[in-house]
Structures are given as C-alpha cells and as structure tokens.
Design brief:
single chain, mainly beta, 8-stranded mixed β-sheet, 7-stranded mixed β-sheet, 60 strands, 5% helix, 42% strand
Length: 812
C-alpha cells in the first residue's frame, strides 16, 4: 500500500539535554532512517508552537527534526510510543515547505488527539496514504492519523514530536517514496582500525596524540565532509564542544574514548563513530630492523661496517623522546638477560650484510624489555669512471658544446633501474647533494670531469663516480640531396626525402642516426624514426643532421641539405569556345604563367586530347576546333605543372518563337523569346548594343513596334527580329494642335494585320466610324461634325481572328 523505509538508529540523549527541543537546533534526518529510543523532556528554551494553531495546543515535551528532501515523492511517518498504555499521549506538528525558525507560520499538518479520550485501540499516531484530513484534535477529536505529504526535491520540513501526557520514549518510522540525503559513510575495515597507542617512558602515563591522522581514513573518497573530534557521544551527536586542538591532544586517562562526527557540509547529514587512545606502560619497540650503508670502513662492498648504536636507538624508537631510558645492546639474548658482554656504541658487525643483536631498555619505574634487532648493511653502488665524447662541428669550434649527461646513465648504473644519478661540478657538491647540474649541460673545459652521485632507490645508499666529458673538434660535412620538385599535390615547400641517399659512410662498429636539429644530434634525442620518408620542416630549404656514434663516442655530425623547388605558378584550369557558325573565329589559349616577366624562363608543350601538337612551343595557342587542350609548363629546375583548357562549341542563336501577350491594361504586356542553339544567350529589347539580360522574358512592354536582340555571350554573333505589341489608347484630344488628334490602335503591323478593321460606337451602340490599319484613325467627327467629349466604344477585328472590345475617352 505504501513504501516503508526503516532503519533503526539508536541515539542516546541525557534526560537534561535540550539541544533538539528548539527549532534552531533541530536534529537533521538523513538516509530515510527511523529513530528508536528517543527521549523528550521539556519544551526547550523557546516555546515556538502557539496555542492558536489549528490543533489548539502548544509544546510540553518536544523534539524538533529537520528533513531535507533529496528526491520528490510522498512522505509520511508513524510515531510509536514504547509503552502501549493509552495514557501515553503523543502529538505532532509539521511545518513547511522551507519554513524558517525565525518566522514559523501555522503547521501544515498537526494532530493533538488523545488516544484514551478518543477511545482508540492503540496510541500510535502519524501521517500515511490512507487518510485525507490535514489536522485533528484536540482531546477526543480525530483518530490519530492524517494525510501524508507530497514533497519536492530541494524542499525542507520541520517535524515536531510532542508528549503532553506520559513519560514514555518513542520510535519513529518513515513512510512514502520520497528520499532524504544520505549520511556520510565511515568505511573502516575493522572496529580497531582507528585506535591509537603511544608509549610513555615516564610515570605520568600521559602522551600527545594527533587525532587527525584518522581523518583521511574516515573521509575516504567522499567530498564536502568535515570531521570533528569530541569527548562525549552527546557532544558528537549534537555537534558541540569539539576538541580544540586535535593535532596535539593529551590524554586524561591511560585509555580514553574519542568520539568522531563526520558532517556533510552541504546537507548537514552526519555520522558518528568512536575509537580509543591508549598509553602503554611497558616499553614497546616500534621497529625491529635497522638498515645502514657500507660506508664506514675500507671496503664498501663486503657487507661489514661500523654502526653507531645511538643512531640505531633513534630508528628503533621512531625518533621518540627516550631520554628517560637506559638502552644497551648485546650479541645474544643470554648476554642481555645476564647483563654481560655489552656492545660498544661503535659496533662493527661480524656477520656480513645482516646480523641480529639484542636491545635492552629500562628505567627506574619500568622493567627491562629485551628484543632482537636486525642490522642490515647494504653495499654502496659501484664507483665508476666513464666518459662521454661529443662533436663540435661549427666554424668557430671551441670544444664547448651541449652534452646530454643522461647518456652516461647506462654505464654509471650498469643498467640497474634501482640506481639514479645526479651530476655536480665538484666532489664536495656531490657529497653534500648541492648545486646539482642540469643533464643538458655545456662543458666549461675540454676535457672536463664531473662528479656523479649514484643513489640506490631501495637502500638510499650513495657513492660518487666520475664522468669525463670530451669534445672532438671536427670539420663539418654537408651532403646535398638531389633537388625535388614540390609535386606531391600540396605546393607548400614540404616534401618527402630519403636521408639515407646521402650515402654517409660508416664502419661496422659505428652507428648512424638522423636528427631534425643539430642540438638533437648533440643530445642524441628525438631521432628520426623513418629516415627513408622524412618531411622537411622548413619549407623549400632545410637541413637534417646525421650523427655517427662509435661506442659512446661521437665520431662526427654531418649536415644534409634538403631543397624543394617550386613548380611554375599557373592560373587555374579554365574553358573557352569556338563558333560553329564562323570557321574564321579562333580562340586564344594561354598557358597562364602568372609571372609575365619570366615567360622566356619556361618551356611549353601543348597537347590536344592527350596527343602533342607539333611545333607549338609558345605560351599561347590559337585554335578553332573544340576539344580538351593541356599545356605543360617546365621551369629551369625542370619542375613541371600542367594546365587544362577546355574548348567547347557555341553559335549564333535561332529564334524559334516569340510569344506576345498584348492588349493589356496599363501596358502590362509581356514578351517571351524562345531561342535555340549551343550558345549562352542574353536578350535585349530595342538596344542592339545592350544592356542585355539573361532572362528571355520582358515585362510591362509598351504597345508599338519593337526589335528583339539575342546575343551569344561567347561572341558568336547577334540576331534580331521586329515584333508588334498591340495596345489601345485610353483617350485622345482632337483639337488640331498636332498632338494626339487621332485615335487608332497602336502596334499594328500593316503587312501582318492588313485585313484588320476597327469599329467605333457611341454609348448607345450607334456605329460612328469604321477604318482599317491603313487609315490615319478617327478624328472625333461624325459625318463631318465634331462629337462631344464622352466615352466611346471600339471593336477590333484582327486578321488573325482575334477580337478585342473596350472603351476610350474623347476629350476636348
């Protein structure tokens, strides 16, 4: 019916503890955990629930809980008193969402029903999914349950549990599918993992503990977690009285419990655990093995040396204060037990590399303790003298060049990965490990001796070896590879070279490697992995470097010149045309060399369809036939580049048809020209020299006689045709002023429309005038008498059987 999440957590509260009796100190609820054994006594320092609320009561013995909602859903709870006596009366109040202690409003849920007065069968109370009222009480009113809440992510609520009558503790169980934020986890592998033990060699049984060494164990990989340490469980739970200096805490008893609170600083959810700190009253030897280096006698490799037992004591007791102890050493347990044959402070081991001796420690208050101690003598790294030989090939060679000192590591360490090296100018610097040199080092004299501190990473034992730097001053040799053309498809001055084609001679005992820079060659770093396919890095003119190595000696460094020649610079591929209708029309093809001043520096080969055209070696070529032409241009470096020129056909246009839509209002006539042919055509109306338009359609053409021109853009010619666009004047003014004195149809071609006739009518349908296209038109008279200003009608009968009707105005 509803989702119940129940996790019982025991909280111990003192009877006089009031920390959770007030809103500002509300107990944060985490992890959808329930509560068991909660004690509530008193209303707190502030009585925050007013009696005028819906349930008509105030705080008596209360505890405040604060809930932070992690995921949205339903929220309910059941409060169960530990005593089932109906006299035990528990009430509750819920504030929210996002209520503030400083400005609490009325509760959104409250129940003050008395189970005995209401004749209930049990004294449980709460909110669940089976009820629908939001408040009940007081006294006999209600059944103890209210409707649960629908809550949203990020909201917060206060739940106040109050016990007005009785003395029973109670448990609380959460209902619904909303979730709360989880408490921090304390993942320790065993209950004793956090425990601490210190030894005290005095009678005080007191020691200083750094409690914070446990913090990383408590936090683990979690974030936003604050750890505090407390002297009591209650202090940890309610987050008061943290230990002020947990890094230097002095115990108050020989064994003491420390309580830890881990708090999520974002959600305020927390977890509590504890551990013990203990002072041991018997002598404890923290370490039973002491390692030293074989450096205090003549032979540093025989496993025998002089050991300072005072230093051994410091190591055994981990640098603790042992000034109150008497410490002695013996060769055997028996000698230690009987206090005989005590070893001197400067002890020379008799068993090489590892020998067990016995330590005995005591003072006036602590009995003697004896323990075996292993003395391990580690040999020093072998002392080596080796050398690096470098080359100096510059014109002003001084013998002072870059060395990669790490190139000597293999010899200095005998390839032992446990040995590390560092380099110094003096033996004193090497012994004191000061003024260490950069491994990329320029020698200051030729030859020069450096001092190498060789340290064993496992034993920390060191020795001083010598590294001699020598420089061979040799003349530089330059090898030039054959010039290559920049013909790899990307004209950027970069090309592949086979460095081995420099044919640098080496003997069987020598090693040849290639490098991008001279410094890389000197330092023997970043060698070229594939010298057969090496790309130059500097366009057009670059160098690579070859180093000949014999043993660990530089035998020579050579320069290899890498040159990339540019291709001829040509214009991009293009196309042109010849005219089918004009055999005398020639197209001029150009090689397209962009540097016109250097045309004579190039040679030219012309081809058509892949076949060479004989005797054509100029930068231009005249042609009058279509096809694919190419010209290959070669410069003085014998680098070639080819340009393609496509020659296509074109011709003068043929007019297939001209469509005329005329007799339109306001001269909105339209002419569409239909032309055929291989050309690329443009059109003009009445303008043989243009301007031309790409569209074959002319809009808003005035009535009258027009010439249509069609031009081939590829210069193969222009044709034209005369057309007539018929139009009707809207008015005329027959006043003998020589302007607009006659009315006639405009645009009638007398040859094409010779049989056409025009009829003029007055508004009553009377025929006034009839004439043909050969007449001058109507002069506004009827039988010689002028007619008045008025609207008149016309009927046009064209010889192509079209008819048009309309009216026009006579104005005087």
């Amino acid at each position: 019916m509803n989702l119940c999440k129940k996790l019982l957590v025991l909280f111990l509260f003192c009877s006089n503890l009031y920390a959770q009796n007030d809103c500002k100190d509300a107990l944060i609820v985490c992890g959808n955990s329930g509560f068991k054994g909660l004690t509530i006594n008193g209303p707190g320092n502030i009585n925050e629930i007013k009696p005028e609320n819906s349930c008509g009561t105030t705080e008596s013995n209360s505890i405040w809980l604060k809930i932070l909602i992690k995921t949205s859903g339903t929220l309910g709870f059941i409060i169960t008193p530990e005593s089932s006596d109906l006299k035990e009366d528990f009430d509750f109040f819920v504030f929210g969402p996002n209520a503030k202690c400083s400005s609490l409003s009325s509760p959104i849920r409250c129940s003050t029903t008395n189970p005995q007065m209401a004749h209930l069968t049990n004294n449980q109370t709460g909110i669940d999914g089976n009820h629908y009222d939001t408040f009940e009480g007081p006294a006999a009113l209600g059944d103890g349950y209210l409707k649960w809440l629908n809550v949203n992510e990020g909201e917060s609520y206060f739940v106040v549990v109050d016990r007005p009558i009785g003395s029973s503790n109670f448990s609380l169980q959460w209902l619904g599918n909303a979730t709360f934020y989880d408490a921090p986890t304390i993942n320790i592998s065993s209950p004793n993992e956090l425990n601490m033990t210190n030894s005290d060699f005095s009678a005080s049984m007191s020691s200083t503990f750094d409690l914070t060494v446990n913090s990383p164990k408590i936090i683990g990989s979690q974030t936003d977690i604050k750890v505090t340490y407390h002297n009591t469980s209650n202090d940890a739970i309610i987050n008061i009285n943290p230990i002020e200096n947990p890094t230097a805490y002095k115990n108050t008893t020989s064994q003491e419990t420390i309580f830890v609170r881990a708090t999520n600083t974002t959600t305020q959810c927390y977890n509590v655990t504890s551990f013990t700190i203990k002072v041991n009253d018997k002598i404890d030897f923290p370490k039973n093995k002491v390692e030293t280096c074989d450096e205090n006698d003549v032979d540093p490799y025989d496993g025998k040396t002089v050991v300072n037992l005072n230093q051994v004591s410091k190591i055994v007791f981990d640098n603790a204060d042992i000034s109150s102890l008497t410490i002695k050493y013996y060769l055997s347990q028996n000698d230690a037990d009987n206090n005989i044959n005590e070893l001197p402070n400067q002890f020379s081991n008799s068993i090489p590399f590892e020998q067990t001796i016995y330590i005995k420690a005591f003072n006036s208050t602590i009995s003697a303790s004896v323990a075996p101690i292993k003395i391990v003598v580690n040999p020093l790294p072998q002392k080596v003298t080796t050398s690096l030989v470098q080359c100096d090939t510059g014109e002003n060679a001084s013998g002072l060049v870059l060395f990669n000192l790490n190139e000597a590591n293999a010899s200095l360490s005998n390839n032992d990965s446990n040995l590390e090296t560092s380099f110094f100018n003096t033996n004193t610097d090497a012994l004191n490990n000061q003024n260490q040199l950069n491994p990329v080092y320029t020698n200051t004299s030729n030859p020069q001796t450096l001092y190498v501190r060789v340290r064993n990473l496992k034993t920390n034992c060191t020795s001083i070896s010598n590294l001699i730097l020598k420089t061979n001053v040799i003349s530089v040799q330059t090898h030039t590879l054959n010039l290559v053309c920049d013909d790899d498809g990307n004209e950027d001055g970069i090309h592949l070279f086979d460095l081995t084609s420099a044919n640098i001679t080496v003997s069987n005992n020598q090693d040849l490697k290639y490098y991008q820079t001279e410094n890389d060659a000197l330092l023997e770093q970043n060698s070229i992995e594939n010298p057969l396919k090496y790309e130059n890095k500097i366009p057009y003119n670059d160098f690579a470097f070859a180093r000949i190595e014999e043993g660990n000696t530089c035998f020579g460094i050579s320069k290899i010149k890498l040159e990339v020649a540019k291709l001829p610079s040509l214009e991009t591929d293009t196309s042109t045309n010849v005219c089918d209708n004009d055999s005398s029309f020639y197209a001029k093809l150009d090689a397209g060399v962009t540097n016109d001043n250097a045309l004579n520096d190039f040679s030219y080969i012309w081809k058509k369809g892949g076949s060479e055209i004989p005797d054509q070696t100029n930068s231009t070529l005249n042609v009058n036939t279509i096809g694919t032409y190419t010209v290959t241009v070669t410069n003085k470096n014998n680098c070639s580049k080819t340009r393609k020129l496509e020659v296509v056909s074109s011709n003068i246009a043929t007019i297939k048809d001209i469509e005329i839509i005329d007799l339109q209002i306001d001269d909105s006539n339209k002419v569409t020209v239909y032309a055929t042919g291989n050309g690329d055509y443009e059109y003009s109306l009445n303008a043989p020299s243009g301007p031309f338009q790409d569209s074959n359609i002319f809009e808003n053409v005035k009535s009258g006689i027009h010439d249509v021109y069609i031009n081939d853009k590829k210069k193969c010619g222009i044709i034209n045709k005369t057309i007539a666009v018929i139009g009707v004047p809207h008015y005329f003014t027959p006043n003998n002023d020589g302007h607009n004195d006659y009315w006639n149809i405009a645009g009638l071609n007398k040859n094409e429309y010779k049989d056409s006739k025009v009829y003029i009518y007055d508004r009553y349908g009377k025929l006034i005038k009839q004439f043909t296209v050969f007449d001058i038109g109507w002069d506004g008279t009827f039988q010689g008498s002028p007619l008045p200003s008025d609207d008149y009608w016309y009927l046009l009968k064209l010889s192509d059987h079209r008819e048009a009707k309309g009216h026009f105005s006579l104005k005087r």
